Every structure is written in structure tokens, then in C-alpha cells.
Amino acid sequence: MAAPEDRDLTQEQTEKLLQFQDLTGIESMDQCRHTLEQHNWNIEAAVQDRLNEQEGVPSVFNPPPSRPLQVNTADHRIYSYVVSRPQPRGLLGWGYYLIMLPFRFTYYTILDIFRFALRFIRPDPRSRVTDPVGDIVSFMHSFEEKYGRAHPVFYQGTYSQALNDAKRELRFLLVYLHGDDHQDSDEFCRTTLCAPEVISLINTRMLFWACSTNKPEGYRVSQALRENTYPFLAMIMLKDRRMTVVGRLEGLIQPDDLINQLTFIMDANQTYLVSERLEREERNQTQVLRQQQDEAYLASLRADQEKERKKREERERKRRKEEEVQQQKLAEERRRRNLQEEKERKLECLPPEPSPDDPESVKIIFKLPNDSRVERRFHFSQSLTVIHDFLFSLKESPEKFQIEANFPRRVLPCTPSEEWPNPPTLQEAGLSHTEVLFVQDLTDE
Length: 445
Prior knowledge:
It is found in: Cytoplasm; Endoplasmic reticulum; Lipid droplet. With 445 residues, the chain is α/β, with parallel strands linked by helices.
């Protein structure tokens, strides 16, 4: 992230500039600064305004400085109800009014001149909003200390957050601007705003946001709503996709009158909320339908992918099986070829067969496992290994075998072992001139 190159920014503004860029993803640092300057460096309002622009929804927060908060107040259809102060009654009332009139005129004239001159000496501290939530909490505490805890539920957030929640929840938002210096504010709060029937109506039918105009947050809202007198109430709602002021109530209004006026404003504008709810439901249904279609497509895609995966695994399994069978065939062919070569080598190494007239010769008849018979002569001095090699060289003989004699029944040690490292000769094995030996197949053992 590139650090801002402007040298005229304070440390606090630089941190807000970098934080705003992180939250919005805007690459241009100049654009980030321009947006924050439009919102008087209120990062919360600037971020929300940016999100509204991305959603294609008109902004409900700070546009250019000429209108600090973008709430539609220019609608000529706004319902306005102003309660004027009661005229004096009787001679005594008119007398008191005429006597106090010069003093009130002088007091308010001097106060206005003093405030006007003070602006040239130092800017109005209320024009700089540094802690909007703190302003709201401070007003709530002072209200409860002065009027008690029986009051409508205050929205514990900034004006921008209240607008956003009212827009999201499609509810009416009642805004109360408290003029601490106004003579009617105290009576309005005690008798009207804290009346049980008023509390019940506000808590059940709308969101309620309130702040003192002596606080920067309240002053900022008063500049947006442009109230004429106090007490001041404004009813705001989502109308034609914009947060719009649909009712203004000014002056010292009584509880029953306030309830009637609020009910009238809500009844007159309820159709807009109903229409917006229907549109949202339609959009939600369309979104749900699209999501269901996407999920069905993904499920079908996953099923096809699973089928393709199983086919690949089956093909791979068959391929490995065929390779395994082929390897087994090759191994079996190599084994048979080696076995045949070994038989041929054993046959070539056999000593010549003695003649029948040789007195040292032994005639042996071999009974093979397949019930065939083989006959051959050997010399008494020859090792039993020769007998084994002869039988091994035969095509009919098994790969592994042992040779047994019948009388007495015994296994001849024809191959080296621990007991007979060097196999004995035919004579040492006790064979006679004529013998019948049995070949026992050991291939499967």
C-alpha cells in the first residue's frame, strides 16, 4: 500500500486515509482523500457511502459538503405539522407578554449577535464531529438524569447507523433534535416524550434516534434536516429507494396529538414500505432460486466428476490388473525357462549309465507322482545327488520332490542338509542291486 505523499495532512487524517483505503480497496490515494474530505473525514460515513454506491443504492450519508447527510428533504409531499406557542389570554396575560417582549427581543438579539461574532473569532466546535457515538451516549445519560429512565428506547448508534438499520429493516425512523436552550424542550420531554402511550407507540412501531443540537453529531443532523424550531421531530423512511423525510413535527405538541400525527404519517406512507418489502422478497426469491439452481448445477457437476473419477479409477484398476497379470505371465515364463535350462544342465552333467554287466551297478525303478515308471542304472559309488539330478532332469518330474525307500521306509538324503552336508553314496545309503524308489511331490508344500 502506498503511503500518502501529501504533507498537509495531520497524523490522524493520515491514519484515517490508510484505514479507508484498506476497508474499500480503492487504489487511488487521491480518490480516497477526496471521498473523506466530502464526508468531513468521517470514516464511518465514507465507508458506508462507498458500500451503498457499490450496491447501486443511493447514498444515505455525506455527499458533497453542501449537504452533510444525504436524506431527501426536498420532497414537496413531506407532511409538516407545526404547533405555535399559545397566544396570551386575558388582560393579565397580554400585559405580562407586552412587558416581557422587549426583554426577550433584546436577549435573543444580543445572543444571536454574540454567536455571529464568535464565529469569526473561532469556528463552531460543533462543526467537527470526532466522537458521534460518544455524543449520543452523553445525551442519553443527561436525558435520564433529568427526566428519568421511562422514555422511548434510544438508538445507541450514530445517525448514519440508524439510517442504515432503518433502511435494512424497512422500518420508520423517528429523529428527535433536542434544543437545550429552547423554552419548550423541557416541557416536551417531561409531558410528551415520556408519556407511556407515546413510549409504547414509538417502541413498537419505529426506531428512535435522538441527540442534542449542542453536540457535534446533533448539530450535523440539524444542518441536514434544517429544522425551524424546537422541539423538532422528523419521520424518515425508505421511499423510492432513498431515505426520505416524510413528516416533520415542530413545536410543543401534546401526547395525544403526537400519537395521532405519527400514526397518520405512518398510515399515509405504509404502502411504500409494503411495496419495498414485496420487491425485496421478489429479489430474495430470485436470489434463492438462482442459488438453488447453482447448487443443483454444482451437485450435478460433482456427480459427473465423481462418475468420471470412478471411471478413471476403474480404468486404472483394470490397467494395473492387466499389468500385474502380464508381469505374472512373464515371471512364470522366465521361471519355466530357467527351470528348463536347469534340467538341461543337470542332464548334461549326469555321469554315464553303467552297463548291466557291471557288478557295482544298481538298478533302480522310480515310481513318479503321475504313476509312471522310470528305470535307470547307477553305480554304488555314486552320490545320492546323482539320483536327484537324474529325476530333476526328467520332464515328468515335479519341481520339488523327495525320494523315499520302502524297506525300511525312509527319505533318502539326496540334497545337502544340516544332518547330511554331503549326501551319502548309494552303497552308504544301504541300497541293494535292485531297488524301487518313490518320488514324493513337494511342489505345493
